Amino acid sequence: MNLDDLEDLAAKYRADAGDHDTEVRVCLAASCQSSGAQPVFDALSAGCDDGAAAAPCKVKGVGCMGLCSAGPLVAVAAPEAALEAGVIYRDVSAADAPDILASTAPGAAPVERLRCPSDMPFFARQHKIVLQNAGIVDPNSFRGYVMAGGYAAMVQALTEMTAQDVINEVTASGLRGRGGGGYPTGLKWSTVAKMPAGQKYVICNADEGDPGAFMDRAILESDPHRVLEGMAIAAYAIGANKGYIYVRAEYPLAVERLKTAIRKAKRSGFLGNHICETQFNFDVEIRLGAGAFVCGEETALMASIEGGRGQPRPRPPYPAEYGLWGSPTLINNVETYANIAPIVSQGGDWFAGIGTDKSKGTKVFALAGTIVNTGLIEVDMGTRLRDIIFAIGGGIPDGRAFKAVQTGGPSGGCVPEAHLDMPVDYDSLKTLGTMMGSGGMIVMDETANMVDVARFFMEFCMDESCGKCVPCRAGTQQMHGLLERIAKAEASRADLELLEELCDVVQATSLCGLGQTAPNPVLSTLRYFRHEYEEKLG
Amino acid sequence: MPIRAQQPDVSVVTLTIDGQDLSARADETIIEVCRENKIPIPSLCWMDGLSVVGACRLCVVEVDGGPRLQAACATRVREGMSVQTNTDKLQRYRRTLVELLFAERNHVCAVCVSNGHCELQWLAQTCGVDHVRMPYRNTGYNVDSSHEMFRIDHNRCVLCTRCVRVCDEIEGAHTWDVMGRGSGCQVVTDLAKPWGESDSCTSCGKCVQVCPTGALVKQGTSVGEMVKDQQFLSILARRRSSR
Amino acid sequence: MQRIRPDLPSTDKRWKLVNATMRRNGYAGHALIEALHAVQDAFGFLDEDAMTFVADSLDLPLSKVYGVATFYHLFMLKPQGRHACVVCTGTACYIKGAGALIEGIEERFGAAPGETTEDKSLSVLTARCVGACGLAPAVVLDGNVIGKLGAEALCDRLEQEIAE
Amino acid sequence: MSSGNNKVTVATTWLDGCSGCHMSFLDMDERLVDLAAQIDIVYSPFVDAKTLPEQVDLGILEGSVSSDEDLHKAREFRARCKVLLSLGDCAVNGNVPAMRNPFKLDAVIERAYRENVDLNPQIPTEGVPRLLATVRPVHGVVDVDIFVPGCPPQADAIHYVLTELIAGRTPDPSQVTRFGA
């Protein structure tokens, strides 16, 4: 199969789908489902089948549209049109179905009382590459993905490019790992590719564990084929024939949609043996996590796939050399793989033209905390924090003042008002004492108590420490105790000094990233809000 | 990391440790070279003959002046490598790590059967730990005396997992493993039943001999009487790997 | 040396589901976590019989199975209540009052996180971010995410579920 | 480190311990004679003085802090002694007295005064200091300058530490003693 054949296939699918000018999209991602999206979908579908719609229209369940706090969300748009090009409705209930269906008639007015302006900055200021299909395609439909141009990059790679060509494009794109570390993806791929031929593995890290981060869940729930396509391209590039997706068991909907996607892709010959009638074989299996944050660390993740306790081991040797069952292994996270297909289709140079000097492309962020527009956004690297929080996020509710934004989860830190004009990329966040992490952004208003925030994250690290190495196991426990004492105003200046020393020791000596970064929330709150600690000392 | 390097590499590299020019086999780790050359690096989880876990972090060293410390047990030597094993910073870190271990469980040396023969006690002295600055955790742990020959006192366990590894890698019984996570970790036999009820335990006593503290001891020993003999390990490990 | 696979622990049909999962994975040792998931899905928790059966089937040491079962927070070694309420304690939920939900539940039902009420009607658990930050504070009640409820309203809802 | 009459003033007392460290002090035997020429023991179980002077050069505490009274003594020593020394494992790390810490205080008292008593079991309320919930080493309640671990520290170790202090040097006790020594 070549690109022309794939285009023919997409055309056939379009013809099969029948004639309709409008589609009514209902977000069926986890957040909207929790707000009652399923009854809305059922009511709209029933209404459409009964002919309540004024024009030929189709009701379709889709993935995340982003503005989770306004769910259930419904959009009325032309088939495959971008979200902003349609009419978006918020807080929809089943009772609204007739009105929405009636509004699809030619010349009919939108239902104003439900309308969410699609030109509001939340939608208008985003740049969607990873989330291109989210909220538009039906995540359970293989055909839908193909009709939206899916699998073209894989077919192009398999039929028109060598493995080295693919790696060159990824390297040229400047893409860096979206899981937190920001390691250059092209370099990682070429390292694994250079290992002697033999059994190699591709792993997708979907163990998104940072509290306050739900980017990967949304991608998997909205566009699972995009991730599979990225993994298949990676496998082709490095010479692997087997892949694993390690997903949190806390994401049942994502798991279900991934399973469906794998099954359908296999049945259609886009996964498995002789993919698209080429010599390339690639099989994907899902492995479920079982509630251990540390399994996001790559060596712990592999230990877990191997059926053991998810405990990290010293690196080197790195997974690229000695990975799953001792074989060379490529591990990237969900968002990284989701970037691959557009890079292959549109070229590394195109991607490298987006973002900042050292951080290319876009980044998906999960906005949460005390912010008006809670949800999922994708913006160019280098967007200012202020624009993200105040323009796109709509600022702080209830007239309160902004205090800090926490990025990077338990490994990150808090950024205060004074640094909000910093363009967001891997390096700028590092200079602020925090990190990109996987993309969670928790906004805190003036009522937040920063010692308590540090204590919260330390408790998280203490609970999630695997217990293997001494500094992380015993050090986080002691640091948590000291933070509790400070929070209760029972601590002395010597306690604060001991806390700072333990931060240094745990950071410098811990075995894996969890321990090495566990002191970050303390160090960062000490850096910007030291007076809040000192006020509590005896 | 596997016990031995994947492929034995007999080529020779030269490196400097604390300014001393040394040569070593390319498949050796820094700690092995230090031990051969009588350069003292504290360690607790590492043991010649067992696989490397890099868990106690006491053997961290500075390599080539880089900011990231490396565990000497888990880092192979390289040509031209420059290692510092005993800087002020490293001494400070080690002291704190030893303090953390003492604060974590109830190591009351004065009434321990291993008093005077304990690696943790010795580490405290060599690292200059004359008191523990952090509060003691004061969590009580079980003492399991159900085995007819041996006893485990979890109050004195440092979770080095030497017992787990020797039981699995040398004896082949895999009676021991670690349960729980974080501060809740404990070594267990089988399904965390009393040791004496274990079906898999062969009562070989290797776990007792490799235990660095008074956690695993022989029954019937009194204060200071438990002296451990670890000679067997390197011999067994060597003979096993040459099969 | 041929290894003999153990018989199913009882005639309970759920063992067949567990066995099927292990068979699908070729009774390989690395299928341990999958097998434990299967046991928990079928029985709601892992008891000694189940762990012994899985260990024998996959030819793994008992202590290894126990070590893995106790490492992961999702695996339960004790039977759970008829209803399970998981309070999300992720950052967003924490900021928006997850602590008050936990306190409220403990006050009304007498069960702290990790505990089950005496009448076995409700188990209270916590999770590190269920990824529903937009609905903070979020709880997962018997698999369904409920968001934006205060402690009072949540407890009422729980009482209602228990009564049904 | 002397004041006034060229002799170093020394105060010692025992908190919750077995007095073994003081016995070890006496084990310095004939060296005590030389020491007596350099130090003046102004308050101690060894001597008759009943009040702790306002200003002392060196305070030596044996035993852990287990009761109200221990806490009071430790604070008083800290306030009045220029240099404070923790002598022995109980003072340095809690040692045997701290082995009750994993248990609740009520359970400990119950066990000591009722369960293990055959005749007229009762919990004393008068004439005994109130026990603290947690036994702590001396530095857990006041700042300590010198730590001399050991159970008890050998007379040689005590002699080394005192000689160094008298000479105005900072001793390194880990050369001569350790936990449990």
Polypeptide structure, described:
Chain A is α/β, with parallel strands linked by helices. Chain A has four domains: 100 residues, Glutaredoxin (3-Layer(aba) Sandwich), CATH 3.40.30.10; 203 residues, NADH-ubiquinone oxidoreductase 51kDa subunit (Rossmann fold, 3-Layer(aba) Sandwich), CATH 3.40.50; 84 residues, Ubiquitin-like (UB roll) (Roll), CATH 3.10.20.600; 85 residues, Up-down Bundle (de novo design (two linked rop proteins)). Chain A has 22 helices and 14 strands. Chain A has a five-stranded mixed sheet with strand order 2-1-3-4-5, covered by helices on one side. In chain A, strands 11-10-14-12-13 form a five-stranded mixed sheet. In chain A, helix 7 runs parallel beside helix 11. Chain B is globular, with a radius of gyration of 19 Å. Chain B starts with 11 loop residues before the first strand and ends with a helix. Chain C is of the alpha+beta class and 164 residues long. In chain C, helix 2 runs antiparallel to helix 3. Chain C contains seven helices and four strands; from the N terminus they run ααααβααβββα. By secondary structure, chain D is an alpha/beta fold. Chain D has a single domain, classed as Rossmann fold (3-Layer(aba) Sandwich). The model of chain D has no long low-confidence stretch (mean pLDDT 94). Chains A and C meet through helix 2, strand 10, strand 14 and helix 18 of A and helix 2, helix 4, helix 5 and strand 4 of C.
Short structural summary:
The complex is a heterotetramer of chains A (538), B (243), C (164) and D (181). By secondary structure, chain B is α+β, with helices and mostly antiparallel strands.
Which fold name is given in CATH as the topology of the largest domain in chain C?
Glutaredoxin
Radius of gyration of chain C: 18 Å
Summarize the main sheet of chain C: 4 strands, mixed
For the biggest β-sheet of chain C, the strand order reads 2-1-3-4
How many DSSP helices of chain C?
7
Outline type of chain C: elongated
**What is the CATH first-level class name of chain D?**
Alpha Beta
CATH homologous superfamily assignment of chain D: NADH:ubiquinone oxidoreductase-like, 20kDa subunit
Distance between the first and last residues' Cα of chain D: 28 Å
Strand order of the largest sheet of chain D: 2-1-3-5-7
Question: Which structural class matches the secondary elements of chain D?
Answer: alpha/beta
Shape field of chain D: elongated
Major protein interface: A-C, 53 and 41 residues
